[in-house]
């Protein structure tokens, strides 16, 4: 079963999936943050198991451990983490949040 939140990380410089990137799903709650799930990207740069099959509506954050990923490749990076905040709405079955990553830039969008 696919979780409510999935992601895909591509290393835009190397032209390969970014395997082994640490990923954490966090919920904004009452002025604080609560970690819902954590894991890492697989050999294809994907994480399909980031959290439960359903989430309550609200604001969430995905945190990508990009500094650790680049350090393991002996590359400098400007971003020790990439954080993406997004809103989960009632009635939405799935959110796919991919990133294209390089040591000094990243881009993201709502995938399908």
Blueprint of the fold:
Blueprint lengths: L4 E7 L4 E2 L4 E8 L2 E9 L5 E5 L7 E7 L1 H7 L9 E7 L6 E2 L2 E4 L2 E4 L4
Parallel strand pairs: 1-8, 1-9
Antiparallel strand pairs: 1-2, 1-5, 3-4, 3-6, 6-7, 9-10
Characteristics:
Thyroxine_BS, EC 3.5.2.17, 6-stranded mixed beta sheet, Transthyretin/HIU_hydrolase_d, purine metabolism, globular, Immunoglobulin-like, single chain, mainly beta, 112 residues, 4-stranded antiparallel beta sheet
What does this structure look like?
The protein has 112 residues and is mainly beta. It has one domain (5-108): Sandwich (Immunoglobulin-like). The protein has 1 helix and 10 strands. The strands form 2 sheets. Strands 1, 2, 5, 8, 9 and 10 form a 6-stranded mixed sheet that branches. A 4-stranded antiparallel sheet has the order 4-3-6-7, covered by helices on one side. Strand 3 (22-29) and strand 4 form a beta hairpin. The chain is globular, with a radius of gyration of 14 Å. The two termini are 16 Å apart. Homotetramer. Catalyzes the hydrolysis of 5-hydroxyisourate (HIU) to 2-oxo-4-hydroxy-4-carboxy-5-ureidoimidazoline (OHCU). Keywords: Hydrolase, Purine metabolism.
Rg calc:
14 Å
Q: What is the fold-level CATH name, i.e. the topology?
A: Immunoglobulin-like
Number of helices: 1
Biggest sheet architecture: 6 strands, mixed
Write down the overall mean pLDDT: 94
The CATH class is identified as Mainly Beta
Question: Order of SSEs, N→C?
Answer: EEEEEEHEEEE
Count of DSSP E strands? 10
| Estimated share of beta-strand residues | over 45%
Going by CATH, the homologous superfamily would be Transthyretin/hydroxyisourate hydrolase domain
Structural class call reads mainly beta
Question: Which regions have little confidence, pLDDT < 50, spanning 5+ residues?
Answer: none
**CATH architecture tag:** Sandwich
User: So what's the overall shape?
Assistant: globular
The end-to-end distance, rounded to whole angstroms, is 16 Å
Q: Give the domain tally.
A: 1
Domain Transthyretin/hydroxyisourate hydrolase: 5-111
InterPro entries: Hydroxyisourate_hydrolase (IPR014306), Thyroxine_BS (IPR023418), Transthyretin/HIU_hydrolase (IPR000895), Transthyretin/HIU_hydrolase_d (IPR023416), Transthyretin/HIU_hydrolase_sf (IPR036817)
Protein name: 5-hydroxyisourate hydrolase
EC number: 3.5.2.17
């Amino acid at each position: 079963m696919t979780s409510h939140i999935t992601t895909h990380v591509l290393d835009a410089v190397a032209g390969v999936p970014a395997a082994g990137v640490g990923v954490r799903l966090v919920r904004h709650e009452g002025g604080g943050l609560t970690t819902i799930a954590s894991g890492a990207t697989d050999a294809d740069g994907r994480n399909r198991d980031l959290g439960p099959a359903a989430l309550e509506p609200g604001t969430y954050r995905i945190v990508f451990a990009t500094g650790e990923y680049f350090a393991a490749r002996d590359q400098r990076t400007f971003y020790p983490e990439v954080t993406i905040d997004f809103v989960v709405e009632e009635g939405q079955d799935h959110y796919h949040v991919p990133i294209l990553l390089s040591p000094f830039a990243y881009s993201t969008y709502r995938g399908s």
